[in-house]
Amino acid sequence: MTEEELTGSSYLIVDDDDFSRELLVSVLSHLGCNTVYCAPDSETAIGLARQYKPDFVLLDIYMPEVDGWTFLSQLRKTMPSAVVIMITGSGKTADFRKSMTEAVDGFCIKPVSPSVLHRALIGTRLHQQSQTA
C-alpha cells in the first residue's frame, strides 16, 4: 500500500468519547488522511457506513448502548470487506485476544500515536490484500 493509497482512503471513527474522536481525526490529518467521518454511537455509525462505505473503520470497544463487538457484527453485514481496527483505552488482554478471533483486522491502544496508527493502517490493508490475492 502506498502513501497515496493511504491518504486517498476514507475513514470512519466510531467512538463515544469526543476527545478520543478529535485525537484520532488529528492523527489521521497528520498522516495526510482527509476523508474522515465520525460517529459517537452505533446508530450514527451504521448510517455513515452505508452512505460513505469507508475503507477503514476505527472502532472503540467500550461504548454505551451498543459496544464495539456488537457493532462489528452489524458492520460486517453492511461492509464485509472494510478494514476494521479496534481501538481501546483499556489495554485488557482479553480484548486483544478477542480481536484475534473476531473479524478484526487490527488492534490499537489509546492514545494512538501517528506512527502506531500508520503501521496499523498499512499492515492491516496489506494483510487484507494478501488474503484476497
pLDDT < 50 runs, ≥5 residues: none
Give the ordered list of helices and strands: HEHEHEHEHEH
The count of domains is: 1
Individual helix count = 6
Strand order of the largest sheet: 2-1-3-4-5
Strand content: 15-25%
The helix fraction, in percent, is: 40-55%
What's the CATH topology label? Rossmann fold
Short description:
With 133 residues, the chain is an alpha/beta fold. Helices cover 52% and strands 19% of the residues.
Describe the fold and architecture.
- It contains six helices and five strands, in the order αβαβαβαβαβα.
- The chain has 133 residues and is an alpha/beta fold.
- It has one domain: Response regulator (Rossmann fold), CATH 3.40.50.2300.
- α3 (42-52) packs parallel to α4.
- The chain is globular.
Helix and strand arrangement:
Elements: H1 3-8, E1 10-14, H2 18-30, E2 35-39, H3 42-52, E3 56-60, H4 68-78, E4 83-88, H5 93-101, E5 106-109, H6 114-132
Parallel strand pairs: 1-2, 1-3, 3-4, 4-5
Helix pairs in contact: 3-4
Features:
133 residues; Rossmann fold; 6 helices; globular
